[in-house]
Hints:
mainly beta; single chain; Jelly Rolls; seven-stranded antiparallel β-sheet; 2 domains; seven-stranded mixed β-sheet
Amino acid sequence: xxxxxHKANERGHANHGWLDSYHSFSFAGFYxxxxxxxxxxxxxxxxxxxxxxxxxxxxxxxxxxxSIPLSGxxxxxxxTGRKEVIRQxxxxxMSAGSGIAHSEFNANTDKDVxxxxxxxxxxxxxxxxxxxxxxxxxxxxxxxxxxxxxxxxGEAVYIHQDAWFSLGNFxxxxxxxxxxxxxxxxxxxxxxxxxxxxxxxKLNKRDALGVWETNSIDIKAETKAELxxxxxxxxxxxx
Length: 239
């Protein structure tokens, strides 16, 4: 088993006034040769956007882009004519594929929207662009792991990669395990709130631990906590 620890205070940080963003991996003006990607996981941005502001229309291609609002509402428009609002407990995925342009704005003027934007390299390039979003009940992840992104689960949003995202809300002292869905994959565990131990490694809010060359991990909530698990292929030579 191999592990890599990414502390919250070691992330890249850019504050543009309207946008306050933390980067787990090299992005924009933040570059760390040790943090280019974790297997197929390329970007994990922890963003806060002021009311009335956002990202104007910009292009993407050949990337699976997942947005998870933590609070507030995010307005999405793209070049296919799609217009949506995603809210807390929603998960959105956009397969950029052969090319798509989109914009993201805070849907409100009186409060921030906080969300995670996560990029995963696709299994195949130049597929037709697609979009999907679903709402997930928070009670379905109370003291359990709830699958929200998957290539083979009709209850989750579909991703064009052998990748699985899971969310969990845990009471203090709750312990569970996670078994990888595919041999050769790794898991990037990102603590949203509280304190959690992964295989004995203690993690605080916004800390992350990457684990690979194993097929399972042990999880324990040291306090009331929220966790995001991102399981991805680790075949680096494909990317």
